[in-house]
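Sequence design from tokenized structure. All designs in this work follow the same two-part layout: the structure record, then the generated sequence. An example of the structure record is given first.
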């Protein structure tokens, strides 16, 4: 069988936006599908396959704003679609899901990716995780995920909500194995205390791309500000001296700017990142230009450090 894969998020960036990403973040579902099919003896490649017609096509996308932009050839089989970008929240078949991902389809990726746990104890109204994954549960082990790779990106939605023994076991194992880790979805600042702060401070941190090293949190509402500040204080007391990356969900420009400023003045090693709100029930687009401008100002450190947001607004003829 000839199997073809389409990473629609990447195709959208390349074909429509014409902005090739500096680093191509891999699609874990497609990697597992590739691994499973190769175990069955099938030939797997990106669509369109070279000099052949596929027997099966898998299309996956994570983001709703990635518009479908691939034209299929006459005679191709009906594609199998999946992913939150299509508002499809079904799990992979268990025998596929249990496979270790095939990294050969993303040759530029030098890190391992996976989940230690799935689900979350929170029910944030803007988040798809409760619908997709349900409550928190253990899922995998960091040694199995790493596959001998030194850098590991963990995509847990709320790792610290797991049983403390499991949290400690996985973090201590990462230290023992000399892994460099990144919880790229962020940790729940509300769950950081003096005990797990010590475990976190003992780990070696590295972001998936570049040479950045930080622990990530999110500060999506005003009520999260004291929790993020408390988490930072616990980490500093535990001996962590590195940078802290903070996501800011943005629905209102002035309110979000206030959150950013309160966190920035609390600690000198904060890397803020604004994520403009996208309606999951709509087309996934950012409808408010003001939020896009705030994100551009905040997320480019050289811009944020060189001028205030008010000055930036004037420079882009912001009304």
């Amino acid at each position: 069988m000839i199997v073809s894969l389409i990473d629609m998020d990447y195709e959208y960036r390349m074909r429509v936006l014409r902005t090739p990403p500096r680093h191509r973040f891999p699609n874990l579902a497609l990697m597992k599908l590739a691994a499973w099919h190769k175990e069955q003896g099938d030939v797997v490649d990106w669509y369109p396959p070279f000099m052949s017609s596929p027997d099966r096509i898998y299309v996956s996308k994570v983001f709703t704003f990635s518009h479908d932009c691939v034209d299929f050839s006459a005679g191709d089989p009906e594609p199998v679609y999946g992913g939150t970008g299509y508002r499809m929240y079904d799990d992979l078949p268990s025998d596929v899901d249990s496979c270790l991902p095939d990294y050969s389809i993303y040759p530029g990726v030098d890190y391992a990716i996976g989940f230690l746990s799935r689900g979350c104890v929170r029910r944030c109204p803007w988040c798809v995780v409760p619908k997709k994954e349900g409550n928190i549960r253990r899922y995998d082990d960091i040694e199995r995920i790493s596959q001998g790779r030194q850098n590991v990106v963990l995509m847990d939605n709320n790792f610290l909500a797991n049983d403390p023994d499991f949290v400690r076991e996985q973090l201590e194992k990462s230290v023992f194995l000399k892994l460099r880790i990144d919880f790229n979805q962020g940790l729940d600042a509300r769950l950081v205390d003096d005990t797990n702060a010590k475990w976190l401070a003992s780990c070696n941190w590295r972001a998936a791309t570049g040479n950045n090293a930080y622990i990530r949190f999110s500060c999506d509402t005003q009520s999260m500000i004291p929790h993020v500040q408390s988490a930072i204080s616990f980490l500093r007391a535990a001996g962590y001296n590195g940078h802290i990356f903070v996501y800011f969900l943005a629905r209102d420009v002035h309110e979000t700017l206030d959150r950013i400023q309160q966190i920035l003045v609390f600690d000198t090693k904060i890397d803020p990142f604004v994520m403009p709100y996208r309606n999951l029930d709509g087309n996934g687009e950012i409808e408010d230009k003001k939020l896009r401008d705030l994100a551009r100002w905040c997320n480019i450190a050289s811009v944020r450090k060189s001028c205030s947001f008010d000055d930036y607004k004037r420079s882009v003829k912001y009304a």
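The mean pLDDT is 93. We note this feature because it recurs in several other targets discussed in the main text.
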